Amino acid sequence: MSFEPTRAQVNELYTRLKNEAEGSGYHLHPDVEFTKWLVRGILINEARYGYWNCPCRRATNNKQADLDIICPCDYRDPDLNDYDACYCALYVSTKILKGEKEAMPIPERRPAPELRAQNAEHRAQEGIGNLNYPVYRCRVCGYLCARNEPPEVCPICKAKKERFKRFI
């Protein structure tokens, strides 16, 4: 039997995600019905797998193997930087939010399973662990984040991207 979230469950998670996104300098897609359809997918995946697998990617039902695609996935920020939207367009840039640009299909960034396994093995052998991104520091409040690019807005003090400096 398949799980179908109620309208109330979808609305509750939508509101939570919207508040968290806006509080952290991110934006959900401005088309509310489209966004709620994606939120519905997150809820279905949570019921199916026990975690918030991205609604746009197929999970393996192995949480450890799927850590990179638990929403918000590891690819959200690089996709936002390069394409103004994440792969499924749940998260979008300010340009898309304001209607200055439309979300367009973007290429899949997630490596094939074999390559993910090789990368994990290499990081373990090198003692790198999971920190495979540069660290940026907000020069206003000191917030640190490990990612390819700093966020558009600091989730703590709301300083703009330009106020970040590479730390490590």
From TrEMBL:
Enzyme type, top EC level: oxidoreductase
4Fe-4S found in the keyword field: yes
One matching Pfam family: RUBY_RBDX
Gene3D superfamilies recorded: 2.20.28.10, Ferredoxin thioredoxin reductase catalytic beta subunit
Keywords from the named record: 4Fe-4S, Disulfide bond, Iron, Iron-sulfur, Metal-binding, Oxidoreductase
Superkingdom in the source lineage: Bacteria
Substrates-to-products reaction catalysed: [thioredoxin]-disulfide + 2 reduced [2Fe-2S]-[ferredoxin] + 2 H(+) = [thioredoxin]-dithiol + 2 oxidized [2Fe-2S]-[ferredoxin]
Tagged with keyword Transmembrane helix: no
EC numbers on record: 1.8.7.2
GO molecular function: 4 iron, 4 sulfur cluster binding; iron ion binding; oxidoreductase activity, acting on iron-sulfur proteins as donors
Transmembrane segments: none
Oligomeric form and interacting partners: Heterodimer of subunit A (variable subunit) and subunit B (catalytic subunit). Heterodimeric FTR forms a complex with ferredoxin and thioredoxin.
Family the entry assigns: Belongs to the ferredoxin thioredoxin reductase beta subunit family.
Official protein name in the record: ferredoxin:thioredoxin reductase
Organism, scientific name: candidate division WOR-1 bacterium RIFCSPHIGHO2_01_FULL_53_15
